[in-house]
Structures are given as C-alpha cells and as structure tokens.
Write a structure and sequence with these properties.
Chain A: One of its GO terms (cellular component) is gas vesicle. Chain A: Belongs to the gas vesicle GvpF/GvpL family. Chain A: InterPro entries: GvpL/GvpF. The complex is a heterodimer of chains A (213) and B (83). Chain A folds into two domains: 5-109, no CATH class; 111-197, Alpha-Beta Plaits. Helices cover 32% and strands 28% of the residues of chain A. Chain A has helices spanning 53-68, 87-108, 128-139, 168-181, 206-210, and strands at residues 5-12, 17-18, 29-34, 37-43, 76-77, 83-84, 111-120, 144-147, 155-164, 186-194. The longest helix of chain A has 22 residues, at 87-108. Chain A starts with a strand and ends with a helix. Chain B has a domain at 30-76. Chain B is built from three helices and no strands. Chain B has helices spanning 2-27, 30-45, 51-75. Chain B is elongated, with a radius of gyration of 19 Å. Classes of the chains: A alpha+beta (213), B mainly alpha (83). The A-B interface holds A 117, 119, 151-152, 154-155, 187, 189 and B 34-35, 38-39, 42-43, 45-46, 48.
Amino acid sequence: MSENVYTYGIVEQEDITLDVAGVKNATEVYTVEYQSLAAVVSDIDTTDPDRTDEDVEAHNDVLQRVLEYDGGRTIIPMSFGMAFKNTRTLKGVLRGARPALQSTLNDIEGMVELGVKVISTGGERGSQDVQSDITETLSAVSINETENDLFSDRLILNKSYLVSRSERGAFDDAIDAIQETYDERFTVQYTGPWPPYNFVDIHIGAEQQRGGR
Amino acid sequence: MFILDDILVKPFTSILDILHTMALNELYDTAEIRDELKENQLLYEVGERSQAEYEERKQELELQLEMAEQIKSQMGDRIEVKG
C-alpha cells in the first residue's frame, strides 16, 4: 500500500479526524502533527494527482469542514495537488517551513475570507461613485481586501475580503444594505466563509515536496 | 521584373499574414474561453441561466477550449495571444 499523503492545509497542532470524502476517493481526513503545527491530510496513491473538477471540489470541501470544525479553526489552505511521499517527508517540509507557517497562522488567527461579486443586471457598468460606495462600505468592516479578475463585462466588482469571525455579522449587514440600495441595478453574489486563500502567500518548493528525502 | 514582383507581393503577403494570425488569435484565445466559462458559471450561480442552459454552454465552451489548446500546441510559436 502506498504511503503517500495528500495535504489540504495547515492548522495549529491538534489531533483531528474527519469523516469526509477527500481527494481521490479518500474516506478519512486526519492530521499529521509536527511541533506546534498539524497538516490536514488523507492517504493517496500518487504524489502527482490529476486536477479534476471533482477532486478540486473535494479539496475545497475538506478545507471548508476544517474551517467550521468544532466552532471554527484557522487554516492555511494549500493549493490543489500537494502530495508527499510519506509522513516523514511531510514532516521534513513542515520543519523547514515552520517559521513562515507559524507566523502566517498568527496573522490569520480567527479570520475568514469572504467573496463579493457585483454583477450588472441591465448592462449598466456602474459609475465610479457606485464602486466607491460599495468598496468603502465593505472596507469599513474588513481587515484586508484583494481585487480579483473582472473576467466578465457584467462584473463591476470582484473582491475578496479578510474578515474577523467576530465581524461576520457586521459584514453580512453591510452586504444586505448594498443589495437593498442597488436592488434591480446590480446583483450581489456573496460567498464564504472560505479559508483565506487570497491572503496567504507561502510557497513550498515542488522539488522538496516530491523528493523522497 | 523580379524586383517589381517582390515589392508588389511582399507587403500584400505580410498583411495577409498579420490578418491570418489575428484571426487565429481571436479564435484560439484560450484565456477568453476560460473567462467565458467563468462567466457561464457565475450567471448560473446567480440564477440568470437555467441548469440546462448552463450545461449546454459549458459543454460548448469546453469543446472549444480543447480544440483551441490542441491547435495552439500544434502551431507552437506561430500564434501569440495578447492580453
């Protein structure tokens, strides 16, 4: 049997077992602990999994479950495809990246990412005033924000917000207020909570993670 | 005579070449197709497209993307997509 492990993300050291469908039909998700950290993993039979829609969804579902686990956990999400030869290799990577991982965990402690897309319903592009109004309203109840790609002509705003769990209610209210103000002109798509994908920037070398050292 | 032919023909072929490349770029712009896939998903999620419309468009675009990727890899450096 293969000893490969697929990694979803990193949390503070804790023994967690989740009964959830993982990547490549894994049936159990568990943690591999290393000092103050724990990697959320499942067993897999390859170190180079294909990127399929189903597996990307499974990856995101697991992250979502950890995010909501037992009142909420802070997790550094890994991008899809991080599989290691065995837990020993994984621990080696955690050892090397521990300072960066620990400081990122401290930075995002108690925070979640929320996505906001504003879509024009009648072909209106949305004036600068409308955009500033929406942006200012949401900036007031968030810690940080990133601008995402406007991949459609219908999109007048596409942003991700880093929000403290304790501010979730205020952010929800702000979204409701925007929807009410601009009803019929724009549709607001509000998604999350997500792990803070757009607010962490940790790169683990591909060679290091796939190598058998 | 040879020189005259050359002068007459050369600008003409180069314009054709540019037009041809531009048309190919347009047709096989994979970034554009990917954006359309995302737009299709978004409009479905906000309820503007029915599931049937969404599935049909998704299938069309995925096929288009597959063809575009195949042709791009066959043409290699001859196609340069801007933007």
